[in-house]
């Protein structure tokens, strides 16, 4: 269970209080966990070097054929999803992450798979600075995968940055954990115990990592924010992108609730449990 600790706040954006040192704490936390993720079974990099594709089935379907297209992956971590798109035919993929060790791991993995920097490039940058950090001014597809937005205090600034990198005729695709699930009790997922609309920072002091709960870690303070579905969709719509669809999925990638079962390769509630959205995905296009 995560433990909240008090912090001093300042303001960034119009509706988010931001604890001092939040970015440095989050970066130190992620930097320390990269070796655990590279060596562990959760990402299974030895297996990935063979299968080369870790994307979820709904992502493959909703994004569609990427053959010959350029793709930018924001907040790419160690690059497995980024390189999965290269494996599926993207002409060029670029991954961006604020953790230098993560970017180094992604570059090493790309080299292992035989992708040079002309096919798969990785850059170290804060996501808010992506527009000036990536090698091309725009991409056919801007992709953001699961577990990324909670690390950002200002969703409108993220949307503006991401949208600015979508080429004419291209689109942004986002898959993210559903904020409704974060309101429910951790044991059974049947009781609402948290405020859905809170914009207060959530400050945790929690050892280990989702990839290895028993990992010994030192940099354990992290800061997260919850963004409602309405906030995310409205932020993207305000950039001028056209929302093509918003889909909700009753599956997860990890045992978020104590009563989860694994079926069909996903973590799910038992069959007799009321279904709730656990992941959402959306696609927003830029008209040519």
TrEMBL record:
Any Pfam family matching the protein: Methyltransf_12
Region Disordered, residue ranges: 1-23
Source organism superkingdom: Bacteria
GO biological process, one term: methylation
Molecular-function GO term, any one: 2-polyprenyl-6-hydroxyphenol methylase activity
Keywords associated with the record: Methyltransferase, Transferase, Ubiquinone
EC category name: transferase
Protein name (record): Ubiquinone biosynthesis O-methyltransferase
Organism per entry: Streptomyces cyanogenus
